[in-house]
Amino acid sequence: ELDQQTIETVKSTVPVLEKYGKDITSRFYQRLFHKHPELKNIFNQTNQRIGNQPQALANAVYAAAANIDQLETILPEVKQIAHKHRSLNIQPEHYPIVGENLLAAMQDVLGDAATDDIIDAWEKAYQQIAQVFIDVEEDMYQEVQQTEGGWVGYRDFTIVAKEKESDVITSFYLKPADGGAIPTYQPGQYITVKVDIPDLPYTCQRQYSLSCRPNQEYFRISIKREDAMGGQAAGVVSSYLHQSVEQGDIISISAPAGDFVLDHKTKPLVLISGGVGLTPLTSMLETAVHSQPDRDIYYIHAAQHERVHGLKKQVAEISEKHPQVRSYVVYERPEDTNQCDKTGYVTLEWLQSILPTKEASFYFCGPQPFMKAINQALATWDVNPDDIHYEFFGPKGSLD
Ligand code: HEM
Question: Which of 27, 123, 158, 260 is the most exposed place for a label (fewest CB within 10 A)?
Fold first, then answer.
């Protein structure tokens, strides 16, 4: 238990941290990778360059600090992060390393403002926060260990098929190299892929949503090749998987994780995806038509144009076979306007014209501007916030 003085000190420093938060976390990562270069194998180095991971960590630390006397209120956020940590095989012994370097970074950035009292209070607070994460993650490790076909850490899988889905998206079908069983999962969950890319000094790990319905034989991930664009470099891992990994090759993956999952309500299901954000939603679609056959489903996919539209055939087959599914395609700049239901963007007016009610479960995933637009539209429509579910690709960002 923290004493009142410690609680007050920690809470009163939150505004200061918010001000310097990004500087502190950037400094923290510099220190961390300098002292523990082996951690470069765990953290996504591209996110580090872009700076969104330092920001995500900073936000999580403030949220925890602001609620230090009632940490149970941030458990939903902790769980979402813990899923990702579990999928990356983060261990309890990593926590003190992060804590030590975070506190040192605070001292570096705040200088004299970081009094001994403040640093003492934060040391205690960090330990409490870390323990919450460690406990939640421990339960997750036990659960996956006990799941039939489940495993802890990484396991080799063979690429049994590689199929092009569009000019930029390719599906990889994965079966365990040991020939053993695989666990079921909840549609919407992801796996972490770990690869050693020749000439790169560190190992890379990336999360990819499973794009098909859970089955006993294989996993499928559908990956967009992130080409260089504007000032942004090409995706290191996606380019490698597209160009250099072939059928018969082996990659390491961790067991399915994540809390962006299909609910079991009876109200209509509305799945809205932008670009490669379609992967978790297609898994939900494939699953729901089987496990929730009485449920009305609206599957809305927005893509730039025909040539980058992935999983088109699979979705068309499902909606032909299952009359409860209504599928819509929105192209920003179609080559042929007859190939889509709408040109331009998904707007509130259009959603209202195709959906009979706002009393539905809404799921969306896609690029950040797309997510902001959908979130805004649903808020304007006054959709119940409990019915709104979304997932970011990469570190959690803001929809404001
Ligand atoms: C991801 C917070 C401890 C490694 C994240 C994310 C947050 C976060 C907010 C982003 C989640 C998302 O993608 O939505 C925290 C907090 C910690 C903590 C508050 C301490 C209390 C650790 C430790 C390690 C670690 C001890 C291991 C050394 C990672 C990695 C990612 C991640 C590798 C994935 C993001 C990337 O690679 O860019 N964490 N974390 N974290 N965390 Fe932590």
Answer: 123
